[in-house]
Design brief:
globular; 4-stranded antiparallel beta sheet; mainly beta; 11 strands; about 0% helix
């Protein structure tokens, strides 16, 4: 059974930083592509970042240069380092993996005040 548990969200002022964590169980984060998505109130869930099994990363244009996705294979954890946060980054952030179907964590709230 694949499970994803996010943590690390919170309230931060614009320009600040947060690091989100996604601990996986039932699968190895090094063996497949892992992603981060977010959903703001009244908006659709949107892609933020992805890291492949080979370590190749890709980012949405809106976060490129500010966010960094990484993983720690020993801890079976994927991270999202978020710097230079903006009020428009406010959303619930979700970890994702697709293994025959999509798996999502419960999400972690990030609120950026102006």
């Amino acid at each position: 059974q694949v499970q994803l548990v996010e943590s690390g969200g919170g309230l931060v002022q614009a320009g600040g930083s947060l690091r989100l964590s996604c601990v996986a169980s039932g699968m190895g984060v090094s063996l497949t592509t892992m992603g981060w998505y977010r959903q703001a109130p009244g908006k659709q869930r949107e892609f933020i970042a992805v890291i492949s099994s080979g370590g190749v990363t890709n980012y949405a244009d809106s976060v490129k240069g500010r966010f960094t996705i990484s993983r720690d294979n020993a801890k079976n954890t994927v991270y999202l380092q978020m710097n230079s946060l903006k009020p428009e980054d406010t959303a619930v952030y979700y970890c994702n993996v697709n293994i025959f179907r999509a798996y999502w964590g419960q999400g972690t709230q990030v609120t950026v005040s102006s």
